[in-house]
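FAQ: What does the model actually see?

It sees only this:
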Amino acid sequence: MIYRGKEIYLAKFDVVFKAVFIGDGDYSLLASLLSSILNISIKSEDIVLLNVELAPEHKSGRLARLDIRVKTVDRHINVEIQLYDRKNMDKRSIFYTSKLYTGQMSTGMKFNNLAPAIAINILDFEYLPYIEYHNVYRLKNVRTNDELTDVFEINFIELPKVPPEINNNPKDLWARFLAAESEEELDMLTEQNPILDKAVKKLVYVSADELVRYEMEMREKIELDYQSDMKDNFDKGVDKGVEEEKYRAAERALRKGVSPDDVAYVQELPLSIVLEIKKNIR
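And it is asked to produce this:
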């Protein structure tokens, strides 16, 4: 996208998203985003950035890697960006959020001391059968709708459903920022709210960063490989070969110099498998 004569990336790309919200250690934009989505007050100084990798419970288990994982005074929150519908977002989010909750447990710790685990899934596709762009799921009684507990919450933000005409409230403004694909949209946001003006300026700044641009190019290459493999399987009517195609796509990406961590993340493969593929290439 061209913004004021400069080529910039869209905020919804995970590499760019992380650079904007946590890249330089300034969490003020992230605090505003989380506060608006969760409808609570979160201060930037209360945010602690955690390791994005959630270790598997067994050696053969799957490594969960989140886009942004933070701890506040009384919550653990993960934010994940998904650009493509791989038909597993519900199960994927339940898996990650469960590990976010159980991963807090340490020896001698009481269950009452576990903090709520909250997932925020930002999707660039329509996933749920509702017109609203923001939907929240918790544990409730299916008959009475009474809530069992607030320790497990999953939020879905569907960007294609964000209306072009929005209210001047923080959540709608942030949703419009993440969905923005034109100069006019970004200019409108800069006029609406000082924090959004800061976000747009930050987006322009990180888009010029060489490392961000390199990572975006690498992600684009392996994502194109993945989509090509999936299309080939669909055309052939093949289902059982999907995993094999993911291994081939991983090998091609590794040969191009993409890091094993990025390959494992995009292809949704255990890092140990990707490292083994790289070893066999050598």
